[in-house]
Amino acid sequence: RSESPLGRMLSLIETPGSPLRFLILDCPTESTLPFYLEEFKRFNVSTVVRCCQQTYSAARLDEQGIQVLDMPFKDGGVPPPTVVRDWLILIDQHQTKAVAAAAASLPPPTIAVHCVAGLGRAPVLVAIALIELGMEPLDAVEFVRRKRRGAFNKPQIAYL
Catalytic residue among 27, 51, 52, 115, which? Predict the structure, then answer.
């Protein structure tokens, strides 16, 4: 167990039948970024997806070999088609990397996703990935909610 003050704010979602992993979190700031960096290393995070406005410099993550991608959309909303397309491209790329890592007995790479609270936009993207990987939509909602209580609002569930 980590001594990080973030322990309860991070939700690891391991994909059934796939080595692909996601880490849902709330929004880092410049002052909390060192704590998040510790956790990113622990979970082998290779990419961070921001679904909200920038609250920290991506350069600090880039220096650690972690790619930062911005895929913002409206708070409480659903992702526009361009965000879904970019997200699915990222999922395909990471699925290939995760399978290669598993074959080489290496730890799987993890995609970290955050919005402001980690309860709406970030879980929606993770659920989209789970659905694309074969999970039924309502099962994906339930699966994420088991790890991230309070995730999703009614419009987001209807969308999924």
Answer: 115
